Predict the structure of Peptidase S41.
Amino acid sequence: MMRRASILLAGAAMGALATVAVTQPRAILGMTANAAASDTYRHINLFGDIFERVRTDYVEKPDDAKLIESAINGMLTGLDPHSSFMDARNFRDMQVQTRGEFGGLGIEVTQEEGLIKVVSPIDDTPASKAGILANDIITHIDAEPIQGLTLQQAVEKMRGPVGSKITIRVTRSGAAPRDIEITRDRIVIRAVRHQILGDDVGYVRITQFNEQTTENLRKAIEDIKSKVPADKLRGYVLDMRNNPGGLLDQSVSVSDAFLERGEIVSTRGRNAEETQRWNARGGDLTGGKPIIVLINGGSASASEIVAGALQDHKRAAVLGTRSFGKGSVQTIIPLGSQGALRLTTARYYTPSGRSIQARGIDPDIVLEQPVPEAMRARLQENRGEAGLRGHLRNNAAEGQEERSASSVYVPPEQKDDVQIGRALELLRGTATDPAFPPSQRAAAAPAPAAPAAPATPAPATPSR
């Protein structure tokens, strides 16, 4: 709008000379647009020619619907690892998953170089009980190679009736491929778990962000407050390690549960409607108690939004290692009876204007989790979002370089967990760190780049 206003003002002052300067570029732009449209239609005609040749000359009669679906998936996966087409069945499955209850193995996966990579196993699911780890590469399903399948096709093969068995072959750095048999089960996601550590610290673990997360969080905090007197409760540990993310609106409401005011997250996209901002409405459920947030290389998407918001507002100290770096918004666009399109439409930004994409959240207190010698050969280096082939680039103009993620190892026994141990020491005052407690006076000011919040945020990629 400012550019158009300045041209009109110049035209009013300069007369005929300005008219030439304005109309000439318009004619050139019109010709350029027509040429671009012509090129586009020429490529569409090329696709039609190839499609028809495949239909008539391929060695076996192909399925037209599968050809079209494969072409669509090829177009979308060429954009970034998170854009995809969902047929009607997969779209229904996704809607069930975001409600927090579905059938399957219980893993969050992505695609890398034609193979399926585990982002994170979900707590207390068949996959986690069978020993599936973050960064495992799945190469075969029931002895059949998955090379060449789309992500959706591979996921569909891993689904099946409750009680049926599946064998997946996984590879890990430094270890021979191994076959793991898993019995499919009804996956009921407990989005939030909680307990009281000792008798003075509330521990809340968020495993993913589905439709139940915020309500479960409220109940968890209420339960902790009912059992520990306010004068004895030293604070909370909010554990989001290996949390693969989920719904954007849930990450906003979870952040809002700990903030009294200020921006939570903004999104910026190519279109004006994708440039949005969400603000806290007040009402800290903890009553201002100290909070330490735990993250690691498996903390992605929605969990990074929460960590970034609480970090920028100095509401919590973030402890652990750098997060995954998935800072893009996937909008689900229903296509009637045909299914839905999952399309990357924007990037997330923290309240101070940091892009999460391919960069992640850096903790205020960096503390590596020691990995047992026997586990080191089994754990691959976690390159995070920046290591995914074809990932959406961070905006270089902002000077925010891309960086890999960090370790995803969390000890099975809490007594061996040094990150929880350090959080407890800080909350109880038996250890100190310059980053804790954070000074809210030094909170970063929000970047003035987005308009007021919309009514309905778009969902992010759900777990499988």
Notes: The chain has eleven helices and 19 strands. The two ends are 44 Å apart (CA to CA).
